[in-house]
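Ticket #4471: complex job returned nothing on first submit. Input attached below:
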Amino acid sequence: MNKKIKFNLNGEETTLEVNPLRRLLDLLREDLKLISPKEGCGQGECGACSVILNGNLVNSCCIPVGNIEGAKVITIEGLIGTKEFNILKESFDEAGAVQCGFCTPGMIIASYALLTKNSKPNEDEIRSALSGNLCRCTGYDKIIDAVKIAVKKGENIW
Amino acid sequence: MLIKDISKPVKRIDVDGKICGTTRYLADIEFKDALYAKTLRSEKARAKLLSIELPEIPKGYFIVDKDDIPGRNKVRIIFYDQPFFAEDTVNYIGEPILLVVGPDKRKVEEITSSIKVNYEELPGVFTMDQAEQCDELIHGDDNCFVDYKYSKGDIDSIKDRADHVFERNYKTGYQEHIYLEPQGMAASYENGRIKVIGSMQCPYYVKDAVVEALGVEYDGVQIVQSNTGGGFGGKEEYPSLIAGQVAAAALKTKKTVKLIFDRDEDIQCTTKRHPSDITLKTYVDKEYKIIGVEADVKLDAGAYSGISNIVLQRAIFAAIGTYNVENVKVRGRAFATNNIVTGAYRGFGAPQSFLALELNMEYIAEKLNIDVLDFKKKNFLKKGDLSSTGGLFREDILLPDIIDTIENMSDYSKKRKNYKNTLKGIGMSVFFHGGGFTGDGERDIIKAKVKLKKYADDKVEILISNVEIGQGVSTSLRKIAAHTLEIPLEDVIFVNPDTDRVPNSGPTVASRTTMVVGKIIENAAAEMKKNWVPHKEMEVMKKYVHPTGFSWDAEKFIGDAYNTYSWGANVVEVEVNPVTYEVDVKGVWTVYDIGRAIDERIIEGQIEGGVAQGLGYASMEVMRSKEGRLIQRTNTDYVIPTSKDFPKIHSKLVNSPYNNGPSGAKSAGELTLIGAPSAYAIAVQNAIGKPLSEIPVTPELLMEVMSDEQKN
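Support reply: We reran it on our side without changes. The output follows.
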């Protein structure tokens, strides 16, 4: 049965009539046509569907829509154009952190979630913060490098 | 930007869309009025299909099965053995029987789960030992898809003069690719033609398979690669199967049909790396020269041969690794079982062989009480030596440089001396990869063609069937063209291949794209440059040119199995926890000779990704099968490395260029994975002071080995 759900999506108040048991990932991709969250496993293992929910990194495949009532949801689409996103974009490019790209939006979201909470993470903290996001192409080193570059580039921003 | 130094990294062409999330993979493409498909699969490992009880199928929903394949119901891979849809028998758990197709995804799933299949179970073959014993015959008269033998020199003549003889068996398990984007295909029926779009490595393999499935004219099928989220070999031959299925569904329904696997289905049903069982018998003289090797290589091919014979060839041609051995006798068998079908996976049989070989070198050195690196150095191949098949190594082999460089980076010898029985360990592997297709395959089978098209605005498009799957070829190949044409990189166009537009430059496999296809692009660009007229449209078509002086007997396996080789050494340092038996990787160092690097940052990315996959394979990636059923069935129980599992990988390159590669480039993608599993296993056995003979090296295995004096 559908229910009215009100939440803030990428800065905009959004009201939708939806089945509260649907996955947030499906709502974003199918109804709202936001394709940056990807479905890699559907079990909360791979992090390709990462979004930020009330400031925290979550797997949108594990969140029933009913749980986002009144919440703030951020996807890559909502970050594009911000100073923080531009720094991450430059850093991922410069480090060579992108290969097949399927994990990349999730990695960017996870990096953003880390840096907004901890502006000067050390390598262990970066590795821990990204450990819920799987990448099969890069072996992670260049993604870790990218976050380190973003820390430097965004010294007064994070 | 003009490309002056081709090795200097440039911005990747595909990076912005991938970071912004605007790059569309198959699941992100919207098709108007598309139907969803779901596969009904066999639940039995070997059975006769007696009957299929369908529920009432609502209007607008369809069943697509063997009767809907108008052409040949066999996937064209090598031997035409696997059906698109099962006929009267099923041979592995997960074998596709039919598709349910319809407009509502949930309804399609509901129909699929309410179909009842009645089977008559038949006895199955579930291990290579069972297959070899032939108590139950499931293929031919020996349960072998192929049984290869080749030799060099005269092994019998040296048996008497060997001072030492060692025989030992090694085993490896399955590995699943876990490309982050699961398999998927969509097909549509347009103006009497079938168009298939999907995630793939080999558009023309898919085209050939679909043409034969539908029994249509070659022009009746169009294949387009969608942005592909990783392949690693997993999207080499498997996409041909599902492309044929969705094509048949589109032909039947006259609508677009989309089939995208969920992760569990992908893990449970797609191809894996072959489990191996390798026995090496090594003859050594009193100077510690290896004078003979007998190898018996067995691979579990699963229920259908697929591409297993070629994987086996690469495995057996690595029988003596980087060592100069004059007398060689090799047997290789790919066994039919009722297990999951195995197939292409980065390294293609070589990681299994090098695991056995490099552990074996350690074992022999330990038994002879000599330093393993001295033992290896005494036996290393050099220019002018002959390969296991008698092919001549024509180029400088930089193994001495590679070893010196990795020694300096890792402090290997000093650590090795100090670590004995301290629960700290360090291991080194040395390995090669033969670039491109085996023997004359590039000339006689692939026959690659490349087209360069110059437009009136002086932009040049590369038209080839090779694909970007993350490895960076959309950037590397543009660099090669821009460098040769001396035009800005921005003026070279490369888009995902569409078989209506591109000639067949071969599949994106065997680490051949940069080396082989890149060279043809270089040649085409040189010709275009010579005839360049500004603001005029022009086209150049170039074919593969086989280097002269190489010979290969594809029946007897004699001669130059590969025209060139890339080389490498890996060092891994570990510490073993004696209470939990967990292994902590403390350091990873790598040195590779891939000829000239086309883009050093892209190559570093290949190295780090390949090594991490190899380390995962050797340690945590456990996949086993019981009575034909995989035990690890989801991403939760088949785990791959995360950012926390391994430390930073240090890498350096040395360069012995290949004249027939663009700017001297050789193959790179697979080489990066081949040595990591053995370096890891060697490091762990060094730490515990007991020999290992299998991977993955799990804590459970270590507990057994460390507590059981009898084991090994």
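Helices of chain A lie at 24-31, 76-79, 83-95, 104-117, 123-129, 141-153. Closing as resolved unless it happens again.
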